[in-house]
Design a protein that fits this description.
0% strand, elongated
Amino acid sequence: MRRFLDKLYLVSGGVAAVFMVGVLVAVVMSIATRQMGVHIGGLDAYAGYSMAAAGFLALAHTFKSGEHIRVTLLLSALPAKGRLRLDLLALLIACAITANLCWFSGKLVLDSLSFNDISTGDDGTPLWIPQIAMAVGTLIFFIAVVDETIRRMRGIPEAAHREEKHYE
């Protein structure tokens, strides 16, 4: 199971990187076609969809890599047992928040599908299509937070954060 989850987070991060390239391609195409006097409708919207997909799909990989911003000033001042308790409390709160985000992201996709919502821009894209990346990204992020919470409850120490590695 560990290998599967680690692979899931890695693949999610890789797909996020592909969407970042999509942002680049859409923006460069938009600039180039404007210079040539050609209008391709929806390029700005697709850049935005790609950026949102990249952001949401990168959440789990970033979290599991220890790259999310974390204020460790209070944690470092506590004894080991207090640090663990505060960390678990924060992770449990994060579980509740990410579960909520995951639920409402999925509901948004279903609502957009049932109401036949389409983009108001030139592209006319059914909105449930780009919203899928948000729902999938939040689901994988929720899994990652629950995974980390379970690991910490079992006494498995967290991976060292990169910002802390620089000073050790």
